[in-house]
Amino acid sequence: MSFWDFKRSSASVRLLVEFGQEQGLDIAKLLARSRLKEADLADPALELDASQELCVVGNLIRACRQPGLGLEVGMRYNFASYGLWGLGLVSSATAGDALALALRFIPLTFAFCRISGDLDGELCTVTFEAPDVEPALQRFLVERDVAAASRLMRETLGPTFTLSRFTLQHTIPLGASWLDAHLNMRGGRPEFGAHSNSLSFDRKLLDLRLPQANPVTVAMCERACEELIERRRARLGTSECVRQYLDAAPLNMAPDLPQAARMLGLSERTLKRRLQDEGTSFRVLLAEVRGHQANGLLADASLSLTDIAERMGFSDLSSFSQAYKRWFGVAPSAGRSGVQDGAP
To answer: Where do the domains of the chain lie, and which CATH numbers do they carry?
Structure first.
């Protein structure tokens, strides 16, 4: 099970956009190529693909090139950001119950990391396995998921909560003194270059009774989370999961079938069979996604065809033109005219 298997709430994208706007960024640039419009974000029932959130994250990273960006953004996620999942945490009887509920329904969060909990001596350690995405996205997502979890721990356990240890695998960023001025992750600065991304705290805290414990509320939240997770899972078939994965990949590094199978935890043969059962193939999906990406770039009049070919990883304009003709039956120049005139 991975983040590709589920739809997700739009609350995280709204938070990302709000952060970007505070930095003076234009909302249209933040939502570029995400298939989202500003008006969409006003719909509380809107659900997104993982690839759409990753697109917004990528836009934010490119526009805000600052160290520790994911840590700063992650500290803005409070329990209310997560809806019923967050309410279930603070309504649990003990911290241990809250952690169990959190891990059970983790697909209802905005996390891209694979998150697990473990008892190690006197500590409880929550580990964040980095997602298999491009390095810049990976760093941001790890930082964000870890920081968001740290804030949730503090909100759930109370203001006296302190981390025993906070580790990150990536190296210390330039300008790391920024962390001292802007972070409030109790437990001090992160240990960079560690073997894992993790948060550790005294395991005795797991038995702590939570101040807002309410058995009726937590039971209601659990039932609602169970129903929501099944509803979201049922909407996605294998082809949609592959489509999302391809859409989120770097433009210049189109994945192949073995990579897609590995990401989805399937053998190549099983992936081929499932796609065939759904009336499609990996080659068809790749052409569909690459064509959509190309049209998104063609809509930007500031980019030349050569620029677009380079961004999409083609060796030259001729190779891009040949691929575009296979996808749409016309040259990129004709495709650009259609896109800019509003044709699909």
So the answer is: 67-232 (no CATH), 238-340 (1.10.10.60)
Find, among 35, 76, 40, 74, the residue nearest to 52 by Cα: 35
Q: Could you tell me the sign of the dihedral formed by the alpha carbons of 129, 134, 139, 140, in that order?
A: negative
The torsion angle over the Cα atoms of residues 154, 106, 137 and 79, rounded to 10 degrees, is: -30
Q: What is the tens place of the pLDDT at every residue in 77-103? A: 998 899 999 999 999 999 999 999 999
What does the pLDDT read at residue 186? 56
pLDDT digits (tens, 9 = 90+) for 293-334: 898 888 888 889 999 999 888 999 999 999 999 999 999 998
What confidence score (pLDDT) does residue 1 get?
47
- Cα(54)–Cα(337) distance, integer angstroms: 28
Mean per-residue pLDDT, 280-285: 94
Is this model's pTM higher than 0.70 or not? yes
How many helices and strands, by DSSP H and E, does the chain display? 16, 6
Contacts 24+ apart (CB under 8 A), 203-206: 203/119, 203/122, 203/123, 203/124, 204/122, 205/95, 205/124, 205/157, 205/161, 206/94, 206/95, 206/96, 206/99, 206/124
Residues 6+ apart with CB under 8 A from 186: 150, 154, 161, 162, 163
CA–CA gap between residue 91 and residue 214 (Å, rounded): 5
Q: Which of 60, 51, 13, 64 is nearest to 293 (CA)?
A: 51
Tokens of 24: 């003076």
Report pLDDT for 260.
85
284: phi > 0 → left, psi -120 to 50 → alpha, else beta; which? alpha
